[in-house]
Amino acid sequence: MAEVVLCRIDSRLIHGQVMTKWVNQSQANRIVVVSDSLAADEFMLEIYLMSAPAGVKVECLSRADAVKNWNEDQFGSGRVLLLLPDLASMKEVYEGGIKVTDIQVGGLGGAPNRKVVFQNITLDDADVEKLISLQEAGVNIIFQTIPEDVPQDFHTILKKYNN
């Protein structure tokens, strides 16, 4: 059974910080990206797969395939960085059986009706509802964009959001 060493929500998915900093810090040897849109886009998927550093396997699954794969063999073996683009994906796979204990929110981009709560992380009411639901299920949630940042707990972020 694989060990999920980091579960990260980042709309940018694989980018320089994930590849260099978070993979090294977590000592992950696999990245499992859960994204319906990326799994369906062969061209972009190739780009992401080619961007993996030596020794790190990258796999991209749709939400449904991620849940199926997890429930059948829990992603095989290795140290996995589980990477999702948004909180809707996280909530769906969590409810499907991928019961992570910790979630790191690292990047949710801006759009209308979204509020900046920590650096480049924005939330809207739907995101807050999903986070509250996950927290009530026992998931520890932190906000951290890069390893050098001091992690912010969800309670602190929620206060910022509500002000």
From TrEMBL:
Domain PTS EIIB type-4: from-to ranges: 1-163
Any matching Pfam family: PTSIIB_sorb
Subcellular location: Cytoplasm
Record GO terms (molecular function): kinase activity; protein-N(PI)-phosphohistidine-sugar phosphotransferase activity
Predominant subcellular localization, coarse grouping: cytoplasm
Protein name according to UniProt: D-glucosaminate-specific PTS system IIB component
Native organism taxonomy: Bacteria, Bacillati, Bacillota, Clostridia, Lachnospirales
Keyword match Zinc-finger: no
Gene3D superfamilies referenced in this protein's UniProt entry, alphabetically: Phosphotransferase system, sorbose subfamily IIB component
Keywords: Cytoplasm, Kinase, Phosphotransferase system, Sugar transport, Transferase, Transport
Gene Ontology biological-process entries: phosphoenolpyruvate-dependent sugar phosphotransferase system
Cross-referenced SUPFAM superfamilies: PTS IIb component
Species whose genome carries this gene: Lacrimispora xylanisolvens
Signal peptide coordinates: none
Gene Ontology CC, one term: cytoplasm
